[in-house]
Amino acid sequence: MINKLKQYISFGIKNSGSLFVLKLIGIFFNYLVLMLIIHYYSFEVNGEYANFIALSRAIKIFIVFGLDYLIVKEINQLDQTKRNNLIFHLSILSVNICIFVILFLVFSFLFEIDYYLLFGSIFLALWRFLSHFFRGKNNMIMYGFFEFVLLQLTVLIALLVNHFVLETNDLIQSIIFVNIIALLLIIIFFIKKIVQEILSINLFNLIKEIYNSIILVYKRAIHFVLTNSISIISTTILYTIIKSEYSLEALGIYDTILRFSQIVTLPLIATNGRVMTIAAKFYNQKNLKELKTYVVKITRMLMLVSSLVFAGVIVFYYLYSELYNNLLSDYWALFILLIIAQLINNWAGPVGVILQVTGNEKTFNKITLISAFYLITSTIILTKYFSITILGLNTLIYLLILNLQSLKVLKNRLNINPHSITKKNELPRTET
């Protein structure tokens, strides 16, 4: 049993890719920020922070509008065409930001809107764009830094400065201020590169090209928007409903417990990137037998490791709630339901990733959309009649619907059952 565990852990580490350490650093900062907010402030402040981040991430999608994925796809053409893809896509992003600012200011006159969202959305859009630029250039360290670490690092610095230096409760303001400083430092660091890029272009031709192709760019990008926005937008709506029907404190408690439960998904998060690469390779080579073996092995590894993490998180939650924060001990039912839901998500394996790289992304998008629709509509109804604990059960049902339908498609389209019992064999070889 010990040797089997070592084998699966070794297999998991190999398939987590070069971003594993940066992902862990970002996750560590994320949970450190959570613990510090709870310790130094309150669940209400955490609710305010969680709501701010959720709304900013949702709005960010429409600012970036698929340019992150387009620039990854097209950056390799940099040396093959006359067009400078960085400047071109950055110019499109600048147009998007200008449109967003104008619309935001117009709506702010009609509705009461938090101006912090204006800055938060723009910063998240910039970090997302830069991360995928470096991803397209195959600079995975810079990609990992902008994608997983930078935001959490700025929030951590803002939290420490806000509490120990400014001694105020306006955490969001401090986060905006630290991100402004981060942006200025990045500009200073890349100023030489930026000047060279600007001097290398013909401004008139660039404006002409943007005018002629911006609609085409939007048409191409909208597919990426629809593919990657459903989960984020549904989460944002869920948080908005919780805040509206219960309170900011209730949202803070729910977000805290949800993030505790999501520790179970770390093995899945760590392997997804590598699984996407290897699965796409097997599929493109029409090596479905090897793909099936690989999916079965990675799913078994995830089931084993996530089950161990599941047990560890339960023990941790019990000790933390009893020794440090007694309020959380009143929400054991919510915690158990949410952590079981996350365990189910892990046991299903990387089914969503497999479907997306095997030509079944449209079907997966439909499954995701239907599942999200269920989550939102049921949450609107249930929160009017039940306590917040019902959301744990609802999340469990939502993930069951999502994963069971995805597994069914995987079986019908590719004849792959990640939970099939096969003869013992060696783990499939993968590139390191």
Would you kindly provide a written description of the structure presented here, covering whatever features stand out?
There is one protein chain. The C terminus is likely disordered. The chain has 432 residues and is mostly helical. Helices cover 81% and strands 0% of the residues. It starts with a helix and ends in an 18-residue tail after the last helix.
User: Kindly, what is the distance between the CA atoms of the first and last residues, rounded to a whole number of angstroms?
Assistant: 26 Å
Give the radius of gyration. Answer: 23 Å
Compute the number of structural domains.
Answer: 2
Number of helices: 17
Quick recap of the structure?
This protein has about 425 residues and is mainly alpha-helical. About 80% of the residues lie in helices and about 0% in strands.
How do the helices and strands line up, and which of them pair or pack?
Layout: H1 2-14, H2 20-40, H3 43-64, H4 67-74, H5 85-110, H6 116-136, H7 140-166, H8 171-189, H9 191-199, H10 203-245, H11 248-261, H12 266-284, H13 288-323, H14 332-347, H15 351-357, H16 361-382, H17 390-414
Tag the structure with descriptive keywords.
mainly alpha; 17 helices; 0% strand; 432 residues; single chain
